[in-house]
Design goal:
The protein is mainly beta. Helix content is 9%, strand content 35%. The protein is globular.
């Protein structure tokens, strides 16, 4: 069941941190690497869907072991790029990645990269960075960063939301990534990690709204048809992980999940990810106890501003602590938002399409 953890996000959406240098006079030399998708790609959706998840193998030609200072994803078609995630390619998965992208226009990858034979590689493939509306260059606070090896390849996953294409016109995309890095040799940068906190989404059709897809089972079948069969399994799996009935869940406008920590770390930043029906998202450490702390509280969620929040001071987490995520939604927005109002009414679950939903907290950590 652990392999059913979290699909691509819809995602979305994670912050990866890289070091800034406080004293410019003593700063190590920064080297810039720029890599563009090998060929222009024309997004296309499967089975009358509205979303295309595509992965591209890129070689930034890293010339020496380095510490990433910043990563910037530059979408060519920003209007219908829903989000992007940059994954590290492990040595074990490189041969498979080369085969998958031998055409130069990538491969379909609902969920994670699809590499390594995992049911969902959203977590099993290490993240380097991500982009979502409202986010620019991804820069870390001083003292933190992400190592990258000489010659290491990366996978760029792009979620194209064709509901947002201007006047329904879809053009080819050839986005790029820009990396600023410093030499790893002699660096004392602290390495950052990622913790993901998902919660199930179970939104029934609003009162007075009816249709065949207002039946949850039919909605999950449609989800699998529009994306992949994994998507329906992921929705079931997240319910199970959050100790909720995976087959007969109770619909609610609020999503919640508690996760017990098994290791010690410090929280450096946190960010939200929901889709178009999301209203609020909150992350809490040890809720309902004398040691309760708010990690993140986004009272008015804005899909077009999913930037992470750098904490004023790190929050220490130890084994046995609980982190709770809570999200609220307004399913009546499906009848109001231009991208959604002409779609068939549906019972909304966790899913990778822009017309589906997510409740996901993305936390950057350091030991």
């Amino acid at each position: 069941m652990r392999r059913l953890l979290v699909p691509a996000v819809a995602a979305v959406l994670l912050t990866s941190f890289m070091p800034q240098v406080a004293d410019a006079a003593k700063a190590p030399k920064v080297k810039k690497y720029s890599v563009t998708m090998k060929k222009a790609y024309l997004p296309a959706v499967p089975n009358k869907g509205t979303d295309d998840y595509r992965c591209f193998l890129l070689d930034p030609k890293i010339s020496a072991d380095s510490i990433i200072r910043s990563i910037e994803f530059v979408p060519q078609r920003k209007n219908y790029v829903h989000h992007a995630i940059i994954f590290r390619v492990t040595d074990a998965d490189l041969v498979e990645a080369l085969e998958a992208d031998k055409s130069g226009i990538g491969w379909p990858c609902f969920g994670g990269t699809g590499l390594g034979g995992m049911l969902s590689s959203f977590i099993s493939s290490p993240w380097l960075s991500s982009w979502a509306p409202g986010r620019g260059k991804d820069i870390s606070p001083a003292g933190y960063g992400t190592p990258i090896k000489k010659g290491e390849r990366i996978v760029l996953q792009v979620h194209y939301n064709l509901l947002a294409a201007s006047n329904g016109m879809v053009e080819t995309d050839q986005s790029k990534i820009i990396i600023d890095a410093i030499p790893a040799k002699g660096s004392n940068i602290k390495q950052l990690g990622i913790e993901l906190f998902p919660a199930p989404v179970e939104l029934a059709c609003p009162p007075g709204v009816t249709g065949p897809l207002c039946d949850r089972d039919q909605s999950l079948i449609d989800l699998a048809t529009r994306t992949t069969s994994k998507s329906a399994l992921e929705s079931v799996g997240i319910n199970a992980l959050c100790r909720q009935n995976p087959y007969k869940p109770i619909p609610s406008l609020t999503s919640r999940c508690d996760k017990v920590m098994r290791s010690s770390f410090n929280i450096i930043s946190a960010g939200p990810h929901m889709h178009l029906l999301g209203r609020s998202l909150k992350l809490t450490l040890n809720p309902g106890t004398s040691s309760e702390q708010t990690i993140l509280n986004v009272a008015n969620y804005d899909f077009d501003n999913q930037s992470s929040t750098l904490l004023k001071s790190p929050i220490a987490v130890k084994p046995g602590d609980t982190i709770r995520i809570e999200c609220t939604f307004d399913p009546t927005l499906r009848q109001k938002i231009p991208q959604l109002k002409d779609l068939e009414p549906r019972y909304v679950t966790w899913g990778e399409g822009s017309s589906d939903e997510m409740c996901l907290g993305i936390v950057s950590t350091s030991k």
